[in-house]
Amino acid sequence: MASRVRGVRAASARVALISTAIVAVFYIAIAVVVGFIVHRNLTSDIDSRLTTTLTAISSQAQHSDDSGGYHQPPGGPLFDAPVIVWTVYPDGSSKCSNPNTKAALPSQYNAVTGPQNITVGDTDFRAAGAQVGLDRVVVGQTTSSVSQALSTVVLAEVIVGPILLAIVFLGALTIGRRVGAPIELARQRQMDFTADASHELRTPLAVIEAQTTLALNQERDNAWYRRAFSRVDVESKRMRRLVEDLLWLARFDASGRRPAAEHVDLGVLARQAVDRFGAIAEARQLSLTTRVSGDSTVVEVPPEWLDRLLGVLLDNACKYSDPQGRVEVSVTGEGGRVRLAVDDSGPGIPVEERPRVFDRFHRVSDRPGGAGLGLAIGDAIVRATQGRWDIGTSAAGGASVSVSWARSLAGPRQVESPDAGEVGSPTS
Predict the structure, then answer these.
(1) Which residues contact 340 (CB under 8 A, 6 or more apart)?
(2) Which residue, among 313, 316, 320, 314, has the nearest Cα to 288 in the 3D structure?
(3) Which run of H or of E encompasses 331?
(4) Average model confidence (pLDDT) across the chain
(5) Model pTM?
(6) 3-class secondary structure for 67-129?
(7) If you placed Cys at 341, which of 71, 320, 349, 402 could pair as Cys (CB 3.0 to 4.6 Å)?
(8) pLDDT (tens digit per residue) in 82-141
(9) CA dihedral of 334, 336, 342, 348, whole degrees rounded to 10
(10) In whole angstroms, what is the distance from residue 265 CA to residue 253 CA?
C-alpha cells in the first residue's frame, strides 16, 4: 500500500510540474502583453500632450503681432514641466523656453516632425516639432514616467509570478493526490478482487479436474465413483455460490439505482429467514431461536436486500457455531431505530480483525466453506440502506453481529405470543 501511495504522489508531482510549466508560459506571455499595452498607452498619452502643445503654440503665434516666429510670453514659460519647448531659429541656434532645463537640443533633432524618441544629454525624450513662422518649435517630454510605470509593472509581475506558480503547483499537487489516490486504490482493489476471485475459483476447479482425470485414467469401483462425484458436487456448489456472490457484487457496484424501498416488518422477515435455516441448524444440531420485541419493527428498506442480509448473517452464524451450539436472532426497537442482531456460540471475531471483517475475500476463520464475500455483500447492503453495524461478543462467547435502521412506523405491534413479546423457535 505504501508503494502505491508513493506512486500516486510521484505521478501527482509530475502532473503538478507540467501544469505549473504551462501556467508559467501563459503567465510570461500575458506579462509581455501587459507591459506592451502599458508602454503603448503611456507613450500615446505623451504624444497627445505634445500634439496639443504644438497646436497651442501655433495658435499663439498666429494671434501674435510679430509673425516672425514663436516668442515666449513675458512672465515665464507658457508650458511648464513635463513639457519642454525648444525654439530653433533660422540661423540653426536653439533656445530652451524652460529656464529650469539647461539641455540644448542637438542639431540633428532640429527637423523633428512627428512624435519620436530622442536623446538630449543623458535623458530620453519623446519629441515632436512644427514650423511656426520663421522659427521651428520642438516640444518634448521625458519618458521617465513610462520607464517608472514599466518598472512598477515588471516588479509586480516578478513578485506575483512566483507566488501564483507556487499556488498552482501546490493546488495541482493536492488535487492530483486527492483525485489520484481513490482512483489508484479502486484500481488496485479491482486487481486484488480479480486475483482473489481467480484464486478462489482455482481451488474447486483443481479438485474437479483431479477427480475427473483419475476417473478417466482407469476403471474404478462404484464406491470410488460415488466418493468422487460427492467431491465434485461439493466443489461445484462452492463454485456456484462464489459465482453468484461475485455477480451480485458486480451488479451492485455497476447499478446506479437501488430497488424500491418498502415498509417491511423486520420481525416477520427474521422469522421467515429462521424457518428457512431450520434444516441447516438441525443438521448441525444447533438451537436456532427468534426473539422479536413488542414495539414496531417496521423499516423502509428493499425487502430483497434485507432477505439477502439475513441469509448472510444466519449462514455465517450456523457455519461457524460448533455442534450443539446456539444461534439467536433478535429484533428489538431502540428509540427511533430497529435493531437486528444475530448472536452465536462460535469462536467469535477478534477485536483486531473487526476493522477488516467487511473486506472482500477476507476470512476471519480458517474453516473451509466460505470465500469471504458474505459480509462484504452485507456491508454493501447496510451502507446503501443507511444502516449501522455493531460487532461485539455474544453472551455465549461467540460473535454478536447487529445492524440498526431508522424506525419507519412508530407504535406497538401485534404480538403473536403472549410471552412478553418473545417468540422462541428452537430447533435441535
Answers:
(1) 266, 270, 310, 313, 329, 330, 331, 402, 403, 404
(2) 314
(3) strand 326-334
(4) 80
(5) 0.52
(6) CCCCCCCCCCCCCCCCEEEEEECCCCCEEECCCCCCCCCCHHHCCCCCCEEEEECCEEEEEEE
(7) 402
(8) 788 888 888 888 888 766 666 678 888 888 888 999 988 888 889 999 888 888 888 888
(9) -80
(10) 27
Beta strands 83-88 and 135-142, pairing class: antiparallel
Asked if residues 403 and 353 have their Cβ atoms less than 8 Å apart, the reply is no
Nearest CA to 304 among 296, 294, 312? 312
The three grid cell numbers given for residue 252, joined into one nine-digit string: 451492485
Which segment of 9-23, 175-189, 210-224, 360-374 scores lowest on mean pLDDT?
360-374
Residue 193's pLDDT is: 67
Q: CA 356, CA 353: separation in Å to the nearest integer?
A: 6
Beta strand pairing call for 94-96 and 83-88: antiparallel
Residue 102: its pLDDT value, please? 63
Q: What is the mean pLDDT of residues 352-378?
A: 71
Sheet holding 94-96, edge to edge: 94-96, 83-88, 135-142, 123-132, 116-120
Q: Give the integer Cα–Cα distance in Å for 19 and 11.
A: 12
Q: Give the Å distances, CA to CA, from 420 to 22, 329, 402, 423, 425.
A: 74, 16, 22, 9, 15
- Separation between Cα atoms, residue 206 and residue 215, nearest integer Å: 14
404 DSSP β-pair partners: 339, 388
Residue 43's alpha-carbon distances to 22, 111, 150, in angstroms, are 32, 21, 11
Residues listed for the chain: 428
Angle value at C-alpha 117, between 112 and 119, nearest 5 degrees: 90
For residues 293 and 86, give the distance between their C-alpha atoms in angstroms, rounded to a whole number.
Answer: 109
Type of residue numbered 42: L
What angle in degrees, to the nearest 10, is found between the helix axes of 222-254 and 144-217?
160
Lowest mean pLDDT among 3-17, 25-39, 288-302, 324-338: 3-17
Residues 6+ apart with CB under 8 A from 243: 201
Residue found under cell 481467480 = 198
Q: How far apart are CA 25 and CA 165, in angstroms?
A: 11
Query: What are the pLDDT digits (tens) for 68-77?
Result: 455 554 334 4
Q: Grid coordinates representing 197?
A: 476471485
Q: What is the pLDDT of residues 313-349, one digit of tens each?
A: 888 888 888 888 899 999 988 888 899 999 988 888 8
3-state helix, strand, coil in the chain (%, to 5): 50, 20, 30
